Amino acid sequence: MPDIGEHRLILIGPQGSGKGTQGELLQVYLQIPTISTGQLCRAEIEKGTDIGKSIEGFVHDGALVPDAIVIALLKERIREYDAQEGFIIDGFPRTVEQARDAEGWLHPTKVIVIEISKKLAIDRMSARRACSQCRYKTTASNVGLHGSQCPRCPGKLIQRDDDRPEAIQKRLDMYSAVTEPVVEYYKQTGLAERFNGSLSIPLVFMEIAHVL
Ligand SMILES: [Zn+2]
Predict the structure, then answer these.
(1) CA separation (Å) from 25 to 115, 157, 197?
(2) Domain containing residue 12
(3) Which residue of the set 53, 75, 137, 160 is catalytic?
(4) Assigned domain for 101 exists
């Protein structure tokens, strides 16, 4: 077992970088929860709270959920019992203002930045295939020549519009525009630890574990 101590980690990385998987591995390794601001917002909507209803409105209008709401939800979440030994935050901060604000209450100990070239991210994501009818997911290399039939239902395995290279490129461009200043901020404060996301999942994980 690692010496757990107080790990208040922030996880940053684009789609295709393996960030989600590393978050899951770290959660098990350190025995601390991964807290995703996206999930916090979705949970609030599901519970039908007043905050949930206002979040739903912003999402419906295609607007970002305001800082004040995201920060209030996060502050409440990190006060919960399971987060007292530490936590891994995914999806926050999205802006330098949020990062500055978080200095006062999140007190991050390390910011884990997983980097990957746009080309590799696009290659990885555009290889995704999904069933047109159920939730089954796989990759193009598993589909093979005659494999467009879903193994779980009568549906067909297709490439979702979201996984087409142009759509991915757009999301990655947005991601760099928003996130690069945040990464730059954490480089300056000395909290950023950068990792090469083009390596295999176990290798990236070993390197992260090494700096903790
Ligand atoms: Zn299916």
Answers:
(1) 17, 28, 15
(2) 7-32+85-211
(3) 160
(4) yes
Tell me, yes or no, whether 97 lies in a domain. yes
Q: β-strands 157-158, 110-115: how paired?
A: unpaired
Whole-structure pTM value: 0.85
- pLDDT band, residue 63 (cuts 50/70/90): confident
Residue 167 within any structural domain of the chain: yes
- Eight-state DSSP code of residue 94: -
Is 171 a residue of the active site?
yes
CA distances from 78 to 9, 47, 73, 146 (A): 12, 19, 9, 49
Say whether 160 is catalytic: yes
Question: How many separate domains does the chain show?
Answer: 1
Summarize pLDDT for 87-126 with one digit per residue, the tens: 999 989 988 999 999 998 999 999 999 999 999 999 999 9
